[in-house]
UniProtKB/TrEMBL annotation:
Superkingdom to which the source organism belongs: Eukaryota
Keyword Chaperone: yes
Source organism: Dendroctonus ponderosae
PANTHER family associated with the record: 26S PROTEASOME NON-ATPASE REGULATORY SUBUNIT 9
Keyword NAD attached: no
Pfam families given in the database record: Nas2_N, PDZ_6
GO biological process: proteasome regulatory particle assembly
Organism classification: Eukaryota, Metazoa, Ecdysozoa, Arthropoda, Hexapoda
This protein's name: 26S proteasome non-ATPase regulatory subunit 9
GO CC entries: cytoplasm; nucleus
PDZ domain boundaries: 91-182
Length: 207
C-alpha cells in the first residue's frame, strides 16, 4: 500500500502564512525598538534606576519594561517561526521533486522564488578582534552574512539594521546564518560588553 504523498499546495499555503506572520513580527519588533530608542536610546539591558535606586526621570519606566517584554516574546516567536518555515520549505521542495508514479515535474527556478531562500548574503565581515564575542562565537573575517537575527536580504536596508538588532539584543542569543567558502553555517552570537569597543568586536559592511 502506497503511503499518502504530501500535498504540495497545502504545504505552500502553510509556509506563505508562516512567512506573513514572520514579516508581521519583524515589523512589530522594529516598532518596539523605536520606542526604546525614543527613551534616551535605552536598550534591552540598561538600568532603569539611578545610582540611588530611584526610577530615572528621563525615561518612562513602564513603557520601557513593557516594550522589552514584548520584544523578548516576539524574538522567541520569530525563532520558532523560522524553524517552522525551514521545515515547511524542505517539505515543499521534497514533495515537488518526489517521484511517486504520478505525472510530477521537477521544480522550476521560478517556483523556488515563491519563498525566500535565505541564501543571499547582504553583508560581509571584514575583521574580527581576538577574544571578542564575535571571535568566541566562531565568526571569521570574510564571512558573508545571510541572516543576522531577524535581518535578511529581503528586509535589509542599511547596516544600521544590524546595529539595531545588536543594541536591543545585548546579553541575548542571536542566530546568524553565514556563508563561508561556498558553505552555509549557522552560529549563535551573544552581543555583550567586553574589554574592547562595542558589543561584537567585529566590523561588518554591506555588500
Amino acid at each position: 500500500m502506497n503511503e499518502p504523498q504530501p500535498d504540495q499546495g497545502a504545504i505552500r499555503a502553510e509556509v506563505l502564512q508562516l512567512i506573513s506572520r514572520k514579516d508581521q513580527i519583524e515589523v512589530e519588533m522594529r516598532e518596539l525598538a523605536a520606542i526604546l530608542s525614543q527613551q534616551n536610546g535605552v536598550g534591552m539591558h540598561e538600568p532603569l534606576v539611578d545610582a540611588e535606586g530611584f526610577p530615572k526621570n528621563s525615561i518612562d519606566t513602564y513603557q520601557v519594561r513593557h516594550a522589552r517584554h514584548q520584544i523578548i516574546c516576539l524574538q522567541n516567536d520569530h525563532k520558532a517561526l523560522m524553524k517552522q518555515i525551514e521545515r515547511g520549505l524542505q517539505g515543499y521542495y521534497s514533495a515537488s521533486s518526489s517521484d511517486c508514479g504520478m505525472d510530477t515535474q521537477p521544480i522550476r527556478p521560478a517556483a523556488r522564488q515563491e519563498f525566500p531562500s535565505f541564501t543571499v548574503a547582504f553583508a560581509r565581515v571584514t575583521d574580527v578582534t581576538q577574544d571578542s564575542p564575535a571571535d568566541l562565537a566562531g565568526i571569521q573575517a570574510g564571512d558573508q552574512v545571510v541572516e543576522f537575527g531577524s535581518v535578511n536580504s529581503m528586509n535589509f536596508k542599511a547596516i544600521t539594521d544590524i546595529a539595531t538588532v545588536v543594541q536591543h539584543s545585548e546579553g541575548t542569543q542571536i542566530s546568524l546564518k553565514l556563508k563561508r567558502n561556498e558553505r552555509f553555517i549557522t552560529i549563535s552570537l551573544v552581543p555583550k560588553r567586553w574589554a574592547g569597543r562595542g558589543l561584537l568586536g567585529c566590523n561588518i559592511v554591506s555588500i
